[in-house]
Hints:
Layout lengths: L1 H45 L2 H6 L6 H4 L4 E4 L2 E4 L9 E2 L16 E6 L2 E12 L10 E11 L3 E11 L21 E9 L2 E6 L15 E5 L2 E8 L3 E8 L2 E6 L2 E4 L6 E7 L9 E7 L5 E3 L9 E5 L5 E7 L22 E8 L4 E9 L2 E11 L6 E10 L10 E14 L3 E3 L4 H5 L24 E4 L2 E11 L7 E3 L10 E5 L4 E5 L15 E5 L7 E11 L3 E5 L8 E7 L3 E11 L2 E11 L2 E9 L3
Antiparallel strand pairs: 1-2, 3-5, 4-5, 5-6, 6-7, 8-11, 8-37, 9-10, 9-36, 10-13, 11-12, 12-15, 13-14, 16-19, 17-18, 18-21, 19-20, 20-23, 21-22, 22-25, 23-24, 24-27, 25-26, 26-29, 27-28, 29-30, 31-32, 32-35, 33-34, 34-37, 35-36
Amino acid sequence: MASVILLLSMVAVGSQLGTQFLSISTSTDQQVAAGLLNQAMEEVRALPYTFVADGLNPTDSTVTGDSNISISGSTCKTNKSAIWNPAEVIPCSPGNAAQAPFYPHVSTTTVDGETFSVAAYPSIDAADTGSGPPVYRVTVIVSWKSSQLGPKQIAAQTLVFSASNGCLTQTNHPFAAPCQPFLYSTAAAGGGYINVTPVAGSGNPAVSGDSFDSVELLFPSSTTVAEIEQVSSVLGFVQDSVGAVSSGGTVTSSSGTGAQSSVAVDNDPGTVRHTSATATLAQDAGVVELPTAPAGTQNWVSVTPDSADTGSLTATVAASSSPACTDLGGTSQLTSLPCGNSQVTSGAAGASVLMGLYAGAASLGSAPLGKFTAQAAGYPDETFAARYTSSGGSYCTSTSGDGCVHAGSEESLPPVEVGGLPSQFLTDGAQPSGWGTGSGVCPSGAGSNYLLAVVNYSAGASSEAGYTSGSLASPAVSVPVAGSSATPTLCYWNGTGYSAQSVNWTSTAPTAPTLPTVAVTDGTVAGGAVTVTMTPTVQLVPTSKATSGSLPCSTVCTANATVPSLVQADIVYVVSQGGTTLADLEIQLNLGQVSAGTSYQEAP
């Protein structure tokens, strides 16, 4: 009897142990499946929104072999309404990048001899025609085949949305996650020009026997941009001086598209950009001449950019000593935050737009229509943009919390001259009395053959936007560049000599001077007297500053400062001999501009 009772007890215990072992095994499988499910969902949430919108790749073998999906051409559909709303479709894109968990669409993992399958299905309501980015549903299914209980699966869903308002763009907010504070900073300097074109409507060619659409000398330029929200990106660009001639719709440049250099970095894991980058620029420009090889008594024009321009750029999403991101004064920013600086420096060789003329067989020499006077020192265009999250430094001095962004830019030019007489006029002594003798009136640096010159020109702009404990920061302009000891000066021919006017205004520009028409005749030219007539117009332009929004900046707050070309000039330049027009040109001068703009919006 005792043996029978013991046997029955052992059978009961054994049966219970078997049940417990089965329960433990099932529980372990479910835990593994739950972990794989969570991992796939986190991968979905970490993907850029555009990757979710692209959906599955219809060429993926795990898509074509999935019984839940039917494919028609490059269009994917669901045939399992029990899992998806019948009104929803699966987005497909043949060019979809290889990013888990959508490519491959189904992945397998083996744990302790058990194989688990993870499948991700993005879907969207086919009737979603809203004006903003659509909402995608992502369903993840983990399945496995239990040796004791047969097929098993667990599933979860999440909604993926990228706001079009608040997060601003999918560029700086590529992931399906809450919006973060938005900060934007852009700084630009340079980009001026001397442009020579035919006089519109005159019916005359620009230069007799040598027509063209335009001859242009472009000044160097520099740009830095920082954009910060969910991801941070910093861009930099510089271009040296460039000469270009346009004739008959064909543009010939001194260096192809111009010597340019750029950097672009970000911390978006969905891109292949670096988080830090540096670059340099060396002038590669040469002379552009029309015609290519003038000979004999053929008229010609040429543009020669400075041959010694140099540039450098730095961009980083985490500023440190290497690479060193510096402000406009050269101080390294060691903030571990986004920062960029770009600089291009005009060389010491000078630059020019020249015209060579003949009156019959008699040479009139070359006329400097516009030029940079060669100088020993370089003249930089610099830009700087950076983020700060704490107070006490040189920038964003009262910020905290979300922090703020700073933008700064400076431009500096060598002496610029426009409207020179043909060299033969000077040799023959045909120039007006006092022409080119501005010394004592105009600052040193200007040459001796010009109608109008701008010497010591420099300007700066700065701006900040972000969270502060007080009010919005005010943008600022500086003419000349802060700390400069030389005042920019406009020097011009007044009919009997030269006059000088300081260029140091900001929001209110003075009345522009009225320059007289210059009419000069050289009567010694063989074949008849030649007359040069220059009719100038000068415009003086004010700076501008503006802010919008108010703290705490639930909508975008902005601050912008701009110094345009404070002096702009237009000269109609005509050369004639008797009833023949040898040249009929319009010379335009623009000194470029500096600007600094910043924006901030708190997280919605």
